[in-house]
Amino acid sequence: MSREVILAARPQGVPVASDFELREVVDAEPAAGEAAVRNVFVSVDPYMRGRMTGVDTYVPGFGVGSSVDGGAVGRVVASRDPRLAEGDWVVSQLGWCEQGVVSADRLRKIDPSVAPPSTALGVLGMPGFTAWVGLEVIGQVKEGETIYVSGAAGAVGSAAAQIARLKGLRVIGSAGTAEKVEWLRSLGIEAFDYRETSPKEALADGIDAYFDNVGGEQLVAALTALRPHGRVIACGAISRYCDERAEPGPRNLFLMVTKRLRLQGFIVFDHNDRLRDFAAEVGPWVRDGRLAYRETILDGIENVPTAFAGLFRGDNIGKMLVRVGPDE
Amino acid sequence: MSREVILAARPQGVPVASDFELREVVDAEPAAGEAAVRNVFVSVDPYMRGRMTGVDTYVPGFGVGSSVDGGAVGRVVASRDPRLAEGDWVVSQLGWCEQGVVSADRLRKIDPSVAPPSTALGVLGMPGFTAWVGLEVIGQVKEGETIYVSGAAGAVGSAAAQIARLKGLRVIGSAGTAEKVEWLRSLGIEAFDYRETSPKEALADGIDAYFDNVGGEQLVAALTALRPHGRVIACGAISRYCDERAEPGPRNLFLMVTKRLRLQGFIVFDHNDRLRDFAAEVGPWVRDGRLAYRETILDGIENVPTAFAGLFRGDNIGKMLVRVGPDE
User: Given CB atoms, is A215 within the 8 Å cutoff of chain B?
Assistant: First the structure.
């Protein structure tokens, strides 16, 4: 037997404990071509909030009463596929559960000697790849430019801010606590606390690109600060995900025309053909410590809802994870 | 002596007669390298409203008490430059005046045997080039796609809708009177009257691109109707130019992310290196009648303010012009 988290109700606003339930499930045996995987880390990610509204977008919505799939890292406990052996570390989409059976085709083996396995859910996984795609493919940022990254202490934001800096950009980043700001400053980011300093003031010098993780007032300020031909890399809008009613968009959107701006949304999995390029560029930076990462880790599958809700309160520095089992 | 229109006050909302004054000026003589030009047609264009707020954007604002420059077509009455002779037709930025002196470097000669001179202010001039750049450079539209053009009976919109159709797109267009809709339908555009049919309903099949001349609710509806990887060609927002307070942007802007949309603003003069390509493609279509155009012409310089204000009430079908002198 193992446990999984199911969606018990559609959240209203920021998710609360009663929106989720723990369920015990009988562990299945792998069939031919499958493996049973015991999760060590499960990922909580802001985009999952959208799936809980029940509306299908680029991913299907989660059903009430159903399990919650998403990124997870674990170890193979039984394999019926020649590519996988017991003990192997793998990344899966098993989601919020302690154990599960997956087709070997849908598992990606990771080498724990290269980087800690948890990084496959963060700086070397989907969030890091999102940051890289946003800068490289969508924003096409260039050395010498100035970029503003909101949510800069989050999993995507901290990767984006640092990758931009390593590519020779001047980087301004916002975060919501003194500790986050201090961390970002230690990384060479011109960080400010948006609860104390208005983005308008912080961006007064002008910017060439804006990596938007937050939406709302940050986007308004960025549009005003963008120089002609600037770009908005529209990645996320965490300030908006828990709104019960859609809030109006920026009042200054017409600046898109007068300043010839480009705003482009993207979903990282459209760009999987660039995964090798990402790994080739960012992997060495992580291994030699030039690209730092932090993780905020809660323990126990029962804490998955708390970790998830914490994303919308800014409880995390860097990648938010839940450790659901031992790593040996 | 000749007359010119000056900006007498900054308009509040839709411009009114008292925002402008007629002034008599003594006609100057051209110096070496200059020509004196008698205007035949002066152009009124929606973007000029923005310049009247006094804020410098991509063009300087107009000063109160100053003349209003802008597109005009006229004939040389005296030349001190070997490239120009008396009687030549020229396009200039002389603006809202009957006559003026200009450096020959800033005049472009036009051949009245190729197309009526007034088209140099419309379908073969800035509005037509704007339509072409929007489709070709910004939207990169392709045969077989569906595009929605708002303000489709205006100078830019009617060119955009027809160029898109000639490039093999399915074209949906909106306009605000039965006469405009009828004209557009006669051109093969699936036109609807936005005062009677909601854009949501008209766009229910989905679209691949949106050529935005209007902003506001049309943009909201287009974002909802756009298919994944769709594009917004952000050209203008005539529904907003006379707002005294900036209105909020679209509530559904986050669809930019989930549908991986791109919204790009542009200013046509950034693309002057493509003028030859435009003339080579669109010129023949106009000459052989495959691309139709209409003009709404008022007579007399004293009617320039009326013509200009009429743009914001939708008084024009096609290009709005004022004839300020005889064409001989």
Answer: yes
